[in-house]
Design goal:
The complex is a heterodimer of chains A (about 220) and B (about 180). Chain A has about 220 residues and is mostly beta strands. Chain A is built from three helices and eleven strands, in the order H-E-E-H-E-E-E-E-E-E-E-H-E-E. Chain A has one domain. Classes of the chains: A mainly beta (about 220), B mainly alpha (about 180).
Chain lengths: ~220, ~180
Amino acid sequence: MKKSKIYLGLSLIAISGLVLIAADHIDAPAVTGNASDITDFYAFQGQDTNNMVFVVNTQGLLSPSATAAAKFDENVMTEINIDNTGDNVEDLVIQAVKRGNSMYFFGPVAPGTTGKTSTIKTANQIGSVEISQYGQNAIVSSQNGYKFFAGPRDDPFFFDLGQYQAILGGTAPGFNNPGTDTFAGTNVLSIVVEVPKSSLGTAATLNTWVETKRKQ
Amino acid sequence: MKTNKYKIVALVVFASLLSVNCNKDDSNGTPSFEGTYVQQDQMGRPAINTVFVASGAPKDQFNETIPSQMSANFQSSFQTRLLALNAGYTTNALGLDAASFTGVLATDVLNVKTSGTTTFFDGTNVLTGRVPADDVIDVELLLIFGGPDGTSNPALTSDHVDANDKTFLTSFPYLAAAW
């Protein structure tokens, strides 16, 4: 029942020629359908309240049948940026990049240079984790007070994108109640890292964002 | 005696082979991370680029802009977009007029508090982080369409999808298993 709903929802969107976009899913031509396409970013206090968790999701709207084939790209580095001085310029970065079957993590550390271009802070590796495979239990690694995960997960985002597009297109006056979650039944490739708050400086509020950067 | 010598030599040779193998293993275990990496996509708050930046090249330009330069480059087009979405916009539940609201939004960073509750909005705390269960779309719809007290355009201020299709985990890695 649920599945048919999803397929109906997706096919309706396809038929009407609307572009699937939300949170940050498939938002721009240069990255759409690409390992560097960020779908979502989360930052929150961990189960251990001394820790902060960052979640970066990429490659959205993976159907279950497409998920096993979805891979991280060794040429795409994921960089979580942390500004702890209030100027929206990163003071610290946490970098994640795939090599072989593992995801390697570096930081939190001041970047070599701020801005659009980065090198990997190899002297500041904090750990690695074997990339979890589709259909198998999550492989989690804990090292030096940090925790790491990389692999497929359910897309945590929820939104009646189809109805929103209908509203924008002028064919509907408002949302339905209940709405239909366009992202139900779809997966993403996730990177989850949990770090001690003490590694992020002493500011009461951080400005955070994520970037994907491609090797030149 | 002679046999022992041979054995020792053999052991030494074997050990040196082992150490060569170990080195090889080490170099496999510590791969190269050299090279220069250049920004392709960027995200702070949910759906900002999606909602406020025009399709095509502008979306790529926004993704390739660093946050400290976003407001100067995009605030004005964000304001135009906001007023196209809601021509009757005056202020919102945060008390921000169109210029102020879009000034905040155009700098696409996610604010997160380093102590206490982290949430996009939970009825009490506002923009102190983002947990997976946060209904961020309803928050953004309310701020765009809801007017100063959140009661304007009631058909547009919630999509009535209030939760994810899977339950989140209370412990690491927090996200639910794939479908």
